[in-house]
């Protein structure tokens, strides 16, 4: 795929990178070195780690890197702990009048060479864009994670989200957050810092309502490491489902079909399972679903050319059921008026 942004000049002094972190001592050094060591451009880019109260020595690792080789690296405390709050705090406290572009990075990721420069250049290449999203390519280290990574990048696993393994650049309603024009970020108040998950999609809803546009740069790709156990995957997708439901509730949205499908499927499985105690033919639906998951596993074995593919079906079932359960749980809580709503500490609009 042609690189659409590489030829655009960007002043590094106009770029600020923010990395929210919490107990990432094992990963933060690799992340920061991949960002700061791979491109001379980064010598003049300010990098801020917003630490949410780590207890594993993350702060010491950051400070050692700053003192040893990265003088443009800063560490701030994120008293509200959440990633959304950390981004807001970093913008409020560290982004100066010279900064026009914010690049968000994940402490758990290792970035390809020139990632920050390319994200900033993609934003500069399209003055009409308020944000730039990039593509995530799922990867796995163990057998289960490899199968989960394969299935999550299929339409069954991602619902066809363009930023999940997509190959075509274009305007999107939402994508994996990478670059922001700070004028837009401040205009809409940054992230809703009460969101622990789905804060990116919630941000994009507000952005779209005031005319901001998101460009998906499919030529800029980031490897995403899948959870390595069924329990971790279930917890992740439960949180994703809860976060999406909060966004739907907050903005009175009508969920898309791909968002409703996991919740509807879970309800049907529960209802038909209960009904089958009185009318055994109702088991046809659960059995059909299990057969579909088995078929996914067979396709996974062929696609991965590995017996690890047998985990693709179970991984798909876990993420679909957990997402649906989280979505329904949060929607019910919201309807009862008992959904947890921590205080909003969004970034100032000034």
UniProtKB/TrEMBL annotation:
InterPro entries cross-referenced by the UniProt entry: Glyco_trans_2-like, Nucleotide-diphossugar_trans
GO MF terms, alphabetically ordered: glycosyltransferase activity
GO cellular component: plasma membrane
Entry-linked Pfam families: Glycos_transf_2
Residues covered by the Glycosyltransferase 2-like domain: 17-188
Protein location: Cell membrane
Keyword Signal: no
Organism (species): Roseivivax halodurans JCM 10272
UniProt protein name: Glycosyltransferase 2-like domain-containing protein
Keyword flag Membrane: yes
Positions of transmembrane segments: 260-278, 284-304
Primary localisation category: membrane
Lineage: Bacteria, Pseudomonadati, Pseudomonadota, Alphaproteobacteria, Rhodobacterales
UniProt keyword annotations, A-Z: Cell membrane, Glycosyltransferase, Membrane, Transferase, Transmembrane, Transmembrane helix
Gene3D superfamilies recorded: Spore Coat Polysaccharide Biosynthesis Protein SpsA, Chain A (3.90.550.10)
């Amino acid at each position: 795929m042609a690189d659409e942004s590489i030829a655009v000049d960007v002043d590094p002094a106009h770029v600020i990178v923010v990395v929210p972190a919490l107990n990432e001592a094992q990963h933060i050094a690799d992340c920061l070195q991949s960002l700061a060591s791979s491109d001379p451009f980064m010598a003049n880019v300010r990098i801020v780690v917003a630490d949410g109260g780590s207890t594993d020595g993350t702060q010491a690792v950051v400070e050692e890197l700053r003192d040893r080789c990265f003088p443009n690296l800063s560490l701030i405390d994120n008293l509200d702990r959440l990633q959304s709050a950390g981004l807001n705090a970093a913008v409020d406290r560290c982004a100066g009048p010279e900064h026009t572009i914010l690049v968000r990075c994940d402490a758990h990721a290792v970035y390809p060479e020139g990632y920050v420069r390319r994200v900033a250049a993609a934003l500069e290449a399209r003055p009409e864009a308020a944000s730039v999203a990039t593509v995530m390519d799922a990867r796995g280290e163990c057998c289960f994670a490899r199968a989960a990574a394969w299935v999550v990048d299929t339409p069954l696993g991602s619902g066809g989200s363009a930023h999940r393994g997509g190959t075509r650049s274009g305007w999107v309603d939402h994508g994996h957050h990478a670059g922001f024009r700070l004028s837009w970020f401040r205009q809409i108040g940054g992230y809703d810092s009460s969101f622990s998950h789905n804060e990116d999609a919630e941000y994009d809803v507000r952005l779209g309502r005031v005319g901001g546009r998101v460009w998906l740069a499919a030529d800029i790709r980031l490897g995403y490491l899948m959870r390595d156990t069924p329990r971790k995957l279930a917890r992740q997708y439960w949180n994703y489902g809860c976060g999406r439901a909060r966004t739907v509730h907050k903005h009175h949205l009508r969920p898309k079909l791909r968002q409703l499908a996991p919740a509807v499927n879970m309800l049907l499985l529960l209802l038909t399972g209960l009904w089958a105690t009185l009318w055994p033919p109702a088991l046809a639906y659960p059995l059909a679903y299990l057969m579909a998951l088995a078929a996914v596993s067979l396709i996974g074995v062929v696609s991965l050319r590995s017996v690890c593919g047998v985990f693709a079906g179970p991984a798909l079932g876990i993420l679909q059921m957990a997402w649906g359960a989280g979505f329904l749980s949060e929607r019910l809580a919201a309807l009862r008026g008992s959904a947890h709503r921590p205080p909003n500490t969004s970034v100032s609009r000034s």
